[in-house]
Amino acid sequence: MNEPSPRRTYLDVDDRRRQLLDAAVQVMVHDGVAALSLRSVAQRAGVAHRVVSYAFGSKGELVTALLQRESELLTRRLWAEPLAPAPLVDAVGAALHTFVDELRLDRVRHERLAELTAMARSSDALVGAARAEIDAVRGEIERLVEAWAAARKTELTVPTTSLVAIIHAAAEGLAAWWLATGDDEHVDDVVRAFSTGLVGLERA
Amino acid sequence: MNEPSPRRTYLDVDDRRRQLLDAAVQVMVHDGVAALSLRSVAQRAGVAHRVVSYAFGSKGELVTALLQRESELLTRRLWAEPLAPAPLVDAVGAALHTFVDELRLDRVRHERLAELTAMARSSDALVGAARAEIDAVRGEIERLVEAWAAARKTELTVPTTSLVAIIHAAAEGLAAWWLATGDDEHVDDVVRAFSTGLVGLERA
DNA sequence: GTCTATAGGTCGATAGAC
DNA sequence: GTCTATCGACCTATAGAC
Lengths: 204, 204
What we know:
The structure is a homodimer. By secondary structure, chain A is an all-alpha fold. Chain A has helices at residues 13-31, 38-45, 49-56, 59-78, 88-105, 107-121, 127-152, 160-181, 187-196; strands at 155-156, 202-203. In chain A, helix 2 (38-45) crosses helix 3, helix 5 (88-105) packs parallel to helix 8 (160-181) and helix 7 crosses helix 8 (160-181). The longest helix of chain A has 26 residues, at 127-152. Chain A binds a DNA duplex through helix 3.
């Protein structure tokens, strides 16, 4: 019944952390953020729960690391594609479509990250990480916009920060609305409206 | 130290529930969703924690009732103003400004409701309530759009459901983006872009 | 008011890497 | 032999249920 030789596997702390974060993501996706605990993560990873304490020091550190890694990874994925060197309206419209497609590929995971982020905002210990996530998103969008502007060689009629804020808000809206409703039927309408809102922001 | 006469106050179950939900809102706003417990709510209301069990049966029922009441109340508040009988772009732009103003009046409370809703989506017991919240929002927007259309006597170039989805997504975006960033400086830009996206949806 | 389950945190011992 | 990572056991606080 019992294993003949318990054969411990020894990992470097950094590797162990990565492995445990993978396990944490699985727990979160499968059973929800509320199910995250030292024990559930340890069980999923096949180690004693003490190992999680050892690797992260405390649950707070685990959640902080999880939020950081997930938000960075998923944010990068969502904004991986460069903006096409086309008129602003078309470029952003295409980007928003790509954005939704990316959400679709890992719907539950994005949903759970949203939950984790919402939770983080009301926690003194995590509010910093939530703030960093938002800054990272803004940064990614800014990067895309600047690359696009350089390729297009046209001028904006508004400051870059305004355009970034608009695209950011549109993306948040798309994410929140689609994750909540799953309304595939109206995605095109919403994307079209959001991109149409950009007319006049680029000087011909 | 103790009150001389403990003078119990007896309340009808419905009144007691209302009072406890008020207390729950206070706990949630003051200490976050994670701090919600039978005991914290009871303490805030000044009753024995057993009373909360009696009134709601279980914590799940308490949270369900809380989510229902909060989402209905706040949704109604956000969409209380009728759409002005003006061109669609202007009417929706004004509505979105009102929407943000309303968010501002009770920022933390809206933030916490968002957290509660995100949590509800991954809970089998609460997903129904979360779904109902979304339907209620859609219903409110639909009501406003229909009243506006009746007053304007113009036609839409898209189905009503499309316009509702667009406004809904815009509102979600505004809420998520503004609650996350608190970026008052760019609210006007975002609202302008979102309403500009509606050009052409109304037949002149 | 009490019981119990859960979960975070900690200690001593040990297996395995170097 | 020493150091690091691992494990199981234990303690305590919290919170839901009865």
